[in-house]
Structures are given as C-alpha cells and as structure tokens.
Amino acid sequence: MTKARGSLTVRRRKMSSTEDLDYPQLLFQYNNGFLVSKIMFTACELGVFDLLLESEGPLSSDAIAERLGTSASGMERLLDACVGLKLLGVEMKSEGAFYRNTELSNLYLTKSSPKSQYHNLMYYSKTVYLCWHYLTDAVRDGKNQYERAFGVSSKDLFEALYRSEEEMIKFMYGLNAIWSICGRDVIGAFDLSPFTIIYDLGGCAGGLAQECISLYPNSTVTIYDLPKVVQVAKERFVPPEERRITFHEGDFFKDPIPEADLYILARILHDWADDKCMQLLAKIHKACKPGGGVLLVETLLNEDKTGPLETQLYSMNMLVQAEGKERTPAEYSKLLAAAGFREIQVKKTGKLYDAILGRK
To answer: What is the SS3 assignment for the chain?
Structure first.
C-alpha cells in the first residue's frame, strides 16, 4: 500500500512537471506580475477604494468614472481587473455591473483606515518601480540606481532617498504603514519591559516607537534621526503631548550615540554593507549600558537560500535602492557577536519582519 501511494506521488509530480512544460502558467503569472502591481497602484491613486468606502452602496462603472474624472471605458476595465484580483466585488443587475470594495480593500487600500497601506503603495508606484526599470544595470554595476532613475547622485544614500521633502514625507508615511501591520509583533517578540530607556535609531516617523510605548508603558523612546526627518516627525506624526517619545537630531554614524538600555535598529542594517554595519554595532555596544541590548528588526532569509520569496525580492530592492542586502539569522548573529553582543536570540513572527535581540 505504501509503495502504491509512493508511485502515485511520483506520477503526480511528473504530471505537474509535464503540465508546466506544456503550458507554463507559472511563467505567465510572473510575466504579468508588474501589471498586477500597477492595476492596484492605479486604483489607489485614482481613489476608487476611497469612493466605494464612502458611497452608500455599490456603484456602476459609469458613476465611478464620472465622480473620479476618468474615461468610462478605462474605468470599466480597471474595475473588472480589480474584481479579478479580488480587490473588488461585483454584482450584476438588470442595469449592468455594480462594484463594491472587499473587506481587504476597505482595511488596507482606503486612505482613512488605521491600517491603510496607501502611502506605502504610492511609494512603490512612484519611486521603487522607477528604480526597478534599471535592475539589469544594478546587477551589472552592483550599485543602486538613483542616478539613472532620478538624475541624483547616490554618494550619500539618504540624500538620494530624501531628495525632496515630498519624497521624504512619502517614505515616512509608507514606513508607518508597515509598522501598523508588523510593528506590534516585532516589539512583542521579546519581553522588553526591563529596558526603560530606549533609542530608536533611524526611527523616522515614529510608528515603531508608538507601538513600543503602547506595549511597554513604563518605557521612553527617543527617535534618533536626521534633523530634517525629526522636524517632519514632530510636525506631522508624533503629537507634542506624547511625553514618552522624544527626539535626538543627528547622524548616528558620525555623531555620538547616548547611553541607553536598548537600541532598536529597524530596517537599518539591511541598507548597509557589512563593514558599515559593524562600525555602527560596535559604536552601539560601546554606548550601551551593561545588561542592555540591541533589537534588530529585519526580514530574514532562510539559511539554505530557499526563500522566503518576499525577502529575496527585498534583497534585490536593496540592490537598486541602497548599499546593503537582506541577511540570514546567522549572518546577523555573526555581526552582533563580532561587535561584542552575546545571548543572541532570533524570533520569527510569521509576518514580513522578524526580531533579533543581542545583550551586552
């Protein structure tokens, strides 16, 4: 009986392999990947999901086109594609098709939702997508592609990344959108309650700091970031009455790092090559209180190079947009150990970002 089952499994594998060769469905899906992305980006940018959230019921494509100022034929095709992508639902009536949001779209694609990914998607559409036009060049050169995509020098990574205030604000909103989904999981991956004085290095708009003080009300978090980032964070993102979040202006590679119980490095090390990561971690170790630690928040590669696919894609994005790469838990642990940290623990969250804690 076992042998028969085994033979059946082998036959199924052969059939699957043959079907892939007869009709390469997987390749067609990959080929159409950017079409899928741009349909979602366009529907967001035009305000389709926001309009349907605000409407009292489903709307026809003509009504949506009229309210959003688009062509009727273009909007109908966009809406039908969103139905195919399960971002919209459709109901056929005698008068024609009427469209409505799905729960997924209401929660993540409308601007007013607390978990809205709108700004993150717009950053991908307007910035990441343009850099990826030059992926072949990035692989050839081993360098990010800001110069080709936007005509700006990439000698200073964050001067290129924040090449205008508008671009910087877009990035900040997008980062907060990610932490609205993943922040609590990484902050809660370890018990951080013993660490009361926390520095969030590169804390940007404060989304992760907000999650931290929410989960650990006895802690204070200082966001250490570039002066222009801090100014915008104060004006737009962190209310002045929130006393548990403070700010420190500076460049933590060049300027002193104050003493603290815990340092958070969330999506920081993946921007940089190993030597620069080592430089920063050694500096943090020197500033860290005895018994204190550092929390790394990154998307982790499998040790055997099998995935996860999302992380492998992110690593390619680091090639076109930054100077670093995504790493395995062993690679991050090696960097931490070389800087003097011990008792290194890794926690997978089951979401995009995981957590690594090292102690001094």
So the answer is: CHHHHHHHHHHHHHHHHHHHHHCCHHHHHHHCHHHHHHHHHHHHHHCHHHHHHHCCCCEEHHHHHHHHCCCHHHHHHHHHHHHHCCCEEEEEECCEEEEEECHHHHHHCCCCCCCCCHHHHHHHHHHHHHHHCCHHHHHHHCCCCHHHHHCCCCCCHHHHHCCCHHHHHHHHHHHHHHHHHHHHHHHCCCCCCCCCEEEEECCCCCHHHHHHHHHCCCCEEEEEECHHHHHHHHHHHCCCCCCCEEEEECCCCCCCCCCEEEEEEECCHHHCCHHHHHHHHHHHHHHEEEEEEEEEEECCCCCCCCCCHHHHHHHHHHHHHCCCCCCCHHHHHHHHHHCCCEEEEEECCCCCCEEEEEEC
